[in-house]
Amino acid sequence: MKTLVKKDGFFPSLESKSMNNFFDDFITKDLFDWTDRNFAALGSNLPSVNLKETDTKIEVELAAPGMKREDFKVEIDNDILMISSEKEEEKEEVRKKDNYIRREFNYQSFSRTFSLPETIDENKIEANYKDGILHVVVPKKEGAKKRALKTIPIK
Q1: Pair type for strands 100-115 and 126-130
Q2: In terms of DSSP H, where are the helices of the chain?
Q3: Radius of gyration (Cα) for the chain, nearest Å?
Q4: Which residue, 56, 76, 95, 116, has fewest beta-carbon neighbours within 10 Å?
Q5: How far apart are CA 90 and CA 67, in angstroms?
């Protein structure tokens, strides 16, 4: 006879933890929290991003250490800024005298998209990569004014 055990989760368990952990995780985890920590928990390599907006520009800083500037693709289409990367590596080591072959490959990719306001000047966008951070500067059109803060009354 198996012993019924109550752990930290919602459901009691019979010695088999895998199904119990599945239900506990399903109920206790916030499935709609799409912040970077959920991607990290899934083993994803989605890079973190800082966004900063001023009256004259929007700045995007994307943390991607260990990459090269050639690894990135920065595009804009219909006021959508797309930053993506695909990187493929393959290594092979052969030692004939030991009858030894080792082959490893690695594939990484990500894509981040950002909706931009209509006031941007897409002809003057600049990007550079330095010290593991991709910097993208999206200038706004001259004369574009930032809308004043409007408070909405709650009824």
Answers
A1: unpaired
A2: 18-28, 36-41
A3: 24
A4: 95
A5: 15
Q: Distance between CA 35 and CA 28 in Å, rounded?
A: 16
Q: Where are the alpha helices (DSSP H) in 11-155?
A: 18-28, 36-41
- Tokens 């595009």 belong to 75
**Three-class SS string for 10-45?**
CCCEECCCHHHHHHHHHHHCCCCCCCHHHHHHCCCC
Separation between Cα atoms, residue 59 and residue 66, nearest integer Å: 21
Calculate the CA 27 to chain-centre distance. Answer: 24
Amino acid at 43: G
| pTM confidence score | 0.59
